[in-house]
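debug: dumping io for the single-chain case to check the tokenizer round-trip. Nothing else runs in this session.
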Amino acid sequence: MKIGFIGLGIMGRPMALNLKKAGHDLIVPERASLTDEIRAAATVVADAKAVAAAAEIVILMVPDTPDVEQVLFGPGGVAEGLKPGTLVIDMSSISPTATKDFARRINAKGCDYLDAPVSGGEVGAKNATLTIMVGGPKPAFERALPLFQAMGKNITLVGEANGAGQTCKVANQIIVALNIQAVSEAFVFAAKAGADPAKVREALMGGFANSRILEVHAERMIKRTFAPGFRIRLHQKDLNLALNAAREMGMSLPNTAIAQQMFSAVVAAGGADLDHSAMVQAIETLAAAKVAQD
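debug: decoded output
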């Protein structure tokens, strides 16, 4: 298939390359940031409008709700180049409410729309093991399924209404943030008490406390490897989506709010672009102790 791909960042680039490996033709918009690898793998066209005009399916993987709106409906955007029957798939993590509006506007052009945010970070994107949470009509999902299978492993049609995938992703981000906070507190506690954090991690991985956060993020905390797999500022954006939606629904997410404040403390110290495992730095400051030395 001819696949337009817009958003070739930390995760988008390996996702697009996995589609190429699966035998699909890539079409991407010109950007100064395009790598030589992408230029060799794809047909480069002028803008998002030209991508949509040349593609059967257009995939977006950009940072935030305003970015999706700009790519879709801004000057030279996807909507200007769409032909009836084109499928638009937004794999960004954005507002479920805005997603419903974007879908209606794309549907009015005779095109289908899926919201299909992902989880798994840079590692999952490179290894094609992403979890993909999809909202939208089942026929569109079935059409896109071979593409999803080239990028991920755990692929779920959460609901046939647009926005269902984004709602699931917000729930995922709440769970991930609270797990990072729990692991941060546990390891700062262990270090302050004089235990070897590496040995504590080894012991806990054999028990009920084991999780992907304990396996991956605790190791980053111990080794002080905070190069971004998923940046704090992006996780903050996702928690804002959760807190704003909770406010609209008249409900409380107290621990989510605390996790957001922990991220904000790291950002205030200049850590917005660190990996979200760097939340541990805020807990360390409160405890006057470190999991390990930088």
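debug: round-trip ok. The longest strand covers residues 152-159.
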